[in-house]
Structure of Alpha-1,4 glucan phosphorylase:
Amino acid sequence: MIKPAPRGTDPETIRAEILEKLAYSVGKDPAVAKRHDWLNATILALRDRIIDRWMESTKRAYQAKSKRVYYLSLEFLVGRLLRDAMSNLQLTAAFTEALAGLNVDIDLVEALEPDAALGNGGLGRLAACFMESMASLDIPAYGYGIRYNHGLFRQKITDGWQVELPENWLEHGNPWEFPRREAAYEIGFGGQVVPGIDQNNRHQRRWKPAEKLIASACDTPMVGWRGRRVNTLRLWTARAPDPIRLDAFNSGDYAAALSESNKAEIITRVLYPADSTPAGQELRLRQEYFFTSASLQDIIRRHMQQYDDIRLLADKVAIQLNDTHPAVAVAELMRILVDHHGLDWEQAWEITRAAIGYTNHTLLPEALESWPVHLFEHVLPRHMQIIYGINAKLIADAQKSNFSSDDFLASVSLIDEHNGRRVRMGQLAFVGAHSINGVSALHTELMQQSVFRDLNKLYPGRINNKTNGITPRRWLLEANPQLTALLNDAVGANVMDDATVLTKAARFASDAAFQQRFAAIKRHNKDELANLISARMGLKVDPAAMFDVQVKRIHEYKRQLLNILETIALYNAIRAHPERPWAPRVKIFAGKAAASYAQAKLIIKLVNDVAQVVNNDPDIRDLLKVVFIPNYNVSLAEVIVPAADLSEQISTAGMEASGTGNMKFALNGALTIGTLDGANVEMLEHVGSDNIFIFGLTAAEVDERRRIGVDVVALLDAVPELRIVLDQLGSGVFSPGDANRYRPIVDSITHGDWFMVASDFNAYAAAQRAVDGLWRRTQDWTEKSILNTVNMGWFSSDRTIREYARDIWTVPTP
């Protein structure tokens, strides 16, 4: 293979390449080119440089016969890629200067790049960080997911309510992706399983699907730091084998003519279709099987092409399941090994378990996923047989153990017999994997004690912890370049290679000159966010005020409700006592609620209704503002995170697996107010108890209160401020003309307080007043902010991936 000549990295060479792409790929003259034309030309010029490294990386992995990691995830929230790729190739300055020489502002151009609508929140952003870290650590890896046409949804706020609109991120094409026509696989659904005899005269079962569609691949290069390696994100799109039924078309039945195409394409239309109906449940199951089957077929094709021995699969392949969505991989891999490669059951099971690892992200039973047996049998009849076979072995193992009671057998079984007979996907992933990892120390401990307690007894040693991390390249270098420069001045320029060196800057935390520069950078970032809020929402906020931020998926356990109820109590207190030295605050919310999650959508409405009252009350003299920024995504996070003063990580203890937003905010100098939940526990250990505001019940205390029940009447008698707030909600103070609007929210607290909003209210309010006190001591606040930043290096996703590589995948890292 002839290597291309090295490309110059000077602005003049890059400028010529951009002009060439503008002319011959975009088809525009510079005199008439629009910003979107310059965006495409710039991406294509950069992409050529990436391709050189991409091909070299792939060739190197083949020649070294390297073990490859395959990361299966329903979400990859990669955000915009132009700035990320330029930065990791150290070409940002050269491209900026090249475009400036053409009178093009790179900031205006890159702002036009749409966020890839491939995820929802932390799960997808974690997958994106992991892909970047695997490439940065020179680990040959593929990410596998779905190329959603519309992703989750674009959020619009109309009269305070969330409205879901299609996210048309592919409207103008995607210059980053490469269609791979050769990577196309049949995916079956339904039909029947028929007995037969194989070539070795052994009994076998053959699945004859009633319906088939084609999964086709589109590849996107994932660039590692300093361009050390370029890995592949392979996303699947669906199509019918025959795009149109001409007989139906010619007879005038145009809907029927396109029905098969529509049925296939709907699988990749949206992320997380609502599963509140039987049709929605079936679509979700089809979606998960579609991308999992295509990915496994692709993995095995690549393996056999190089090694031609299926028995070596686990030696050369590490398959990581990111949550339960791809858990059907256990049954699918068994089907492929037994039905298509002729392995006996025990041999296939040994390979399957050795190849698969499973990351659990939740303790919520509904998020672990389970499917009605009748639905599973209808959609995947052969897989249901295989699951019964796996379950038979599981029950046999349990009966041989010391834990063979009926309750224990029912607990470990893959089939839940108590809720209408359902297939437990979390159980399937556990049994079919050699490694099951949690994503924070507390989460892993709770996982062993709760959802997988009995499976852990039966198969001890499989559970391990891998605390999540974030890539500092995206969440420090790109999101906060001025802070990065300050830190480089303090500890040297290798922070992006090893974030743990940040601790060396701790000696500057009390240095007046360093504090002044640090505070000036924070103020600059706050000015940027204030400008964004003004431009998008027409609301003026004071950058000198504390920016108190909670941005994440809207869910009752994440307790945006606790935040806004305490905000109402604060508003009441300011109005009652304007003479007190209040710390001015801007309460910033953002996040999407699942389309079918009525209570979460009502919380969004409440935030906006409170904002309407508070922001228009002249009596509070700008001491308090409330903002809900619509359509939260990665690009918006890159503006919000560096500007935050206070990070709200206030989930009900024991319910947040890890969190990664908490890490991003602290890395950028925000102080955390939070419960002892998820990775907050480890953040406390790293930043120190004096530099974080921890409040509320522990996970054990939450469990105990739920067990014995909460006396809400007595609790509200002891918390009069909250009772007043609930009375205001119930009487329509924030919903004129609709006094019953917030009755479901009031009831959620007064009828049991499952998420401990009332139980934690006093502790949370007290912690907020402690925050006020520190805010007034400017130097102390800045010192603690610096100590948060410099002690967050351990939470790099590079560290997390090194642990996966060492303990689960057995692949080398530098």
Observations:
- The two ends are 27 Å apart (CA to CA).
